[in-house]
């Protein structure tokens, strides 16, 4: 018979307890937070917006961040900004990218690029959810090696793609109205 109130711990396959797993996870989180603190600018220093959106992994490269700023795809507090704009804690950053708008609020300034779990702790994501992917198969894909499509196959493909017979067609070399 087991006594009530006894300390019963589940053990893993190697005899490890759940507490050891929790400790390992806590150590990883602590190391990640320490990395973010190390990437933080010194007091009085500022962080450029192109560098910050790269450091928190909103863009793949810093030059892509600078290009997005120059192209007017980055707004801070509703205003278009240049790549050298100094971002501050509490600023709302809007980034248009790949047909989607990311809206984030700056929670922590960092200068160096960090891992994704740490980067997420540096901002509050207020972005709308991404649109659902279409479950429709792409129209008009032919089997490899099937050869050149016949006229009938080509017309079927055009109909599937929405380029049906009523669509205007540009034929080079024709001068007829």
Q: How would you explain this protein's 3D organization?
A:
The protein is of the alpha+beta class. It has a domain at 47-125: RNA-binding S4 domain (Structural Genomics Hypothetical 15.5 Kd Protein In mrcA-pckA Intergenic Region, Chain A), CATH 3.10.290.10. 30% of the residues lie in helices and 14% in strands. The protein has 5 helices and 7 strands; from the N terminus they run αβααβββββαβα. Strands 3-2-5-6-7 form a 5-stranded antiparallel β-sheet. The chain has a two-stranded antiparallel sheet with strand order 1-4. A hairpin with a 2-residue loop joins strand 2 and strand 3. The protein is elongated and about 70 Å long.
Please give the order of strands in the largest beta sheet. 3-2-5-6-7
Number of strands: 7
Rg, Cα atoms, Å: 27 Å
Find the structural class using helix and strand composition: alpha+beta
Region (Disordered): 1-23, 125-177
Pfam families: S4
Organism: Streptomyces poonensis
Keywords: RNA-binding
In summary, what is this structure?
The protein has 177 residues and is α+β, with helices and mostly antiparallel strands. It has helices at 18-38, 49-55, 62-70, 116-120, 151-161; strands at 47-48, 74-76, 79-80, 86-87, 92-97, 100-106, 123-125. The protein has a domain at 47-125: RNA-binding S4 domain (Structural Genomics Hypothetical 15.5 Kd Protein In mrcA-pckA Intergenic Region, Chain A), CATH 3.10.290.10.
Outline the fold blueprint:
Layout (H helix, E strand, L loop, with lengths): L17 H21 L8 E2 H7 L6 H9 L3 E3 L2 E2 L5 E2 L4 E6 L2 E7 L9 H5 L2 E3 L25 H11 L16
Antiparallel strand pairs: 1-4, 2-3, 2-5, 5-6, 6-7
Helix pairs in contact: 2-3
């Amino acid at each position: 018979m087991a006594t009530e109130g006894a300390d019963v711990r589940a053990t893993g396959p190697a005899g490890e307890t759940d507490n050891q797993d929790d400790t390992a996870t806590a150590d990883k989180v602590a190391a990640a937070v320490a990395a973010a603190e190390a990437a933080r600018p010194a007091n009085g220093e500022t962080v450029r917006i192109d560098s910050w959106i790269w450091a928190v992994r909103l863009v793949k490269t810093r030059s892509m961040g600078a290009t997005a700023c120059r192209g007017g795809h980055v707004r801070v507090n509703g205003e278009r900004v240049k790549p050298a704009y100094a971002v501050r804690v509490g600023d709302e950053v809007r980034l248009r990218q790949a047909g989607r708008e990311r809206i984030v609020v700056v929670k922590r300034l960092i200068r160096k690029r960090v891992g994704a779990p740490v980067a997420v702790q540096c901002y509050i994501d207020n972005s709308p959810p991404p649109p659902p992917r279409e479950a429709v198969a792409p129209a008009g894909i032919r089997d490899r090696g099937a050869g050149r499509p016949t006229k009938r196959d080509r017309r079927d493909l055009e109909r599937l793609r929405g380029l049906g017979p009523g669509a205007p067609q540009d034929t080079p070399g024709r001068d007829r109205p």
